[in-house]
Amino acid sequence: MSSSADQGCKGHHGCPSEHNHEDGSTRRDFLTLTAGAMGAVGAASVAWPLVQSMNPAADTLAMATTEVDLSNVKEGQAITVVWRGKPVFIRRRTQKEIDEARAATDADLKDPQSDQDRVKQSKFNGKDMPEWLIMVGVCTHLGCVPLGQKPTDPHGEFDGWFCPCHGSQYDSSGRIRKGPAPKNLEIPPYTFTDNNKIKIG
Q1: What is the pLDDT of residues 66-124, one digit of tens each?
Q2: Hey, which residues are catalytic here?
Q3: Which range of residues forms the domain containing residue 172?
Q4: Facing residues of 192 across strands?
Q5: pTM score of the predicted model
Q6: Facing residues of 82 across strands?
Q7: Distance (Å, rounded) from C-alpha 89 to C-alpha 68?
């Protein structure tokens, strides 16, 4: 049989059992909130390095531009440099190559573009630099590297570049003239940093 004290506690908030119940609930709520907060901090501490790792590193940013000294490239010669993992063709064209490129009309071209639009002015002497042709050396068909940088390479019918994969032929301005490639060889962004140097990118 219950004591009078126990009977007096029934229905009242002052009973020890109810105090214990409330204390337990409060303690559980506190622990839940604390665990949640710690979890959020832990997640943030994991996520931040992940986000930081997705930002370009300094050496990656440095590779975004390539500087090239052109002073040793003679007329009629070509060199290849790497920019962002791609070959870039640099050719110092002869006057004959320039004249041939500028004689082509839109009717001759699959992807019409004037030779003048594919070369740049030097900001240092204020005149055209038509002898310098700078292009990404990747065929616009399926991404092969065309031949034509070496004197012994096949240059195709248009004295330019020949893709050995599927026979695309580019002229001395890097414009597609024959074969399956749909576009001219890409001109990368570049500037003359002086009359004998360029920065690609």
Answers
A1: 999 999 999 999 999 999 999 999 999 999 999 999 999 999 999 999 999 999 877 76
A2: 166
A3: 61-200
A4: 198
A5: 0.69
A6: 87
A7: 12
